[in-house]
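ok trying again, last paste got cut off:
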Amino acid sequence: MNFLSGVELYYSSEKIKENSIYISGDDYKHIIKVMRHSVGDEIYITSGRGEIYLSTIKQIEKDSLTASKNKVFKYENEFSNIFFCIPKLKSNERLEFALEKCTELGITNFIIFDSERAVHKSDKKERWQKIVLSAMKQSLRSYLPTINIINSVDEILELEGRKILLEQNSENQISELKINKNEKYFFIYGPEGGLTKEELNLFDEKYRLDENRLRTETAVIKCASIITT
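nice, full thing came through this time. structure:
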């Protein structure tokens, strides 16, 4: 596997056609206005689907550029079967921090949910998507995480796969969990006030992260670190 370092990574949301890659929007502005790249310069571009392309800028227009593919680096999504179910938090900044750090660690599937004790704020999916996009590029990863929003803990139960509740009073430690690549795992975290007794009773598999109580965002990041190590 090829590990890149010391490079700037850009993202193309356009469909990559044959030998041409198109970039517009914020990344185009950064390449041209900030980094001052010009025709003939080499840059690294990811599709967000497991490829990073070493490319040469061929054409610059008013709002977009075209680059040719020189070399492609392909990567496997090692954690495609891992889903992090994170409740809406009172502080959106803490939720964003958790999304950012988990993306840097390699988590690529997020589910944001409401619970009885969660603070019901408006969804900020567009902003959250920008957070994980930036984190993907910053950490030189090639898989753009997905973010889905659901309305209740009950909806998590309808998803196909093992449901792992992170619960401080569990006798099982998360380090004891053996991940099977052929199974889906949904890791569920509680909000600041915790899940209600009724919500806790919905889950059979429970694991603890630490002897001490952790903030939700700390628990999320710690679990991501353990799983991806």
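cool. Residues 82-228 form a domain with the Alpha/beta knot fold (CATH 3.40.1280.10). The chain has two domains: 9-74, 82-228.
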